């Protein structure tokens, strides 16, 4: 989702997660088990456990689900390798940079293979070059576990590169200005960012954004 500040993007995620109830209408999920939802909050730092190491933070949702220890180790090691956290495994949260904290939050939210993954500005603490590297890793991750994902972004390049669809929201009262299908397929390289087709989609998103902001 892409839209102006204050239009309700985070509220939509909270409703999808079951944290908030909608004032009207209803949310229908194929699986209504809240435990099957992974969520990386915008204030992700507040959700990490400062008395636990990186490894133990990632392990926490597996412990709650009483996953066998050997399977926990396998899943934790896989996520730490995917997000390049292995060398930080025994560090405490206060020893990490903002970007690394964000990666720990993402690894923890995905380690139990949720049925629905919600990401509120998932790469906002990473600089541009590091973000692009993790865009590629996330596309690989999605291909690996094929989880339905809804994410909020304030970066138009990120939204277009990562998404299969981009929903552009208006200012309040919030409406969907446009829904754009992204035609780039599953396998994407950073060369895509310099293509004419990418710039064309990017322009459509920004045009819809300006229309929505003016409402």
Provide structural commentary:
The chain is α/β, with parallel strands linked by helices and 215 residues long. It has two domains: 1-28 and 136-215, no CATH class; 34-114, no CATH class. The chain is built from seven helices and five strands, in the order αβαααβαβαββα. The protein is globular.
Number of H- or I-type helical stretches: 7
Strands, count? 5
Distance between the termini: 17 Å
* Beta-strand residue percentage: 5-15%
Spans of at least 5 consecutive residues whose pLDDT stays below 50 are none
Element order: H for helix, E for strand: HEHHHEHEHEEH
Instruction: Report Rg.
Output: 18 Å
Q: Describe the largest sheet.
A: 3 strands, parallel
Number of domains: 2
Strand order of the largest sheet: 1-2-3
Give the overall shape. globular
Structural class: alpha/beta
* pLDDT averaged residue by residue: 89
Give a quick summary of the entry.
This protein has 7 helices and 5 strands; from the N terminus they run αβαααβαβαββα.
